[in-house]
Amino acid sequence: MEDWAEDAGFAVTLCDRDGTITYMNARSRKTFEKYGGGGLVGKSLLDCHPEPAKSKLRAMLEKPAANAYTIEKAGLKKLIYQAPLIRDGAMRGLVELSVELPAEMPHFVRKP
User: Which member of 10, 28, 50, 84 lies 3.0 to 4.6 Å from 64 by CB, making a disulfide possible if both were Cys?
Assistant: First the structure.
């Protein structure tokens, strides 16, 4: 159980090296409720994504890399961040964070 993530204000989904979903926090289960919610644990993360996202995830599992983008779905703008899940110095799978963003969000450039 990923205790730190359970009540986070964003969706956290983990999968193993084979792409099998191993954990979904409360927000993730709610976000994907119409697709099975917590019942997706034990299912393939790849099956939850259309092409070309499926191929991108497969490539990330083969050669660890991060992927970040924004989407708008059902009137909500989100930041999606997918990255290697590293434990004990080894790549164990992927972590996907889905963070809702305000429609208008300030952007600041910090100077050193």
Answer: 84
Secondary structure percentages of the chain, helix, strand, coil, to 5: 25, 40, 40
pLDDT above 70 as % of the chain: 98
Confidence (pTM): 0.91
DSSP string, 24-67: E-HHHHHHTGGGTGGGGTTSBSGGGS-TTHHHHHHHHHHS---E
Q: What confidence tens digit (pLDDT) does each residue in 67-100 have?
A: 999 999 888 999 999 999 999 999 999 999 999 9
Tell the burial category of 103 from Cβ atoms under 10 Å away from its Cβ (0-12, 13-18, 19+).
Answer: exposed
Question: Is the domain covering 11-101 a CATH 3.40.50.300 domain?
Answer: no
Two tokens at 42? 């034990």
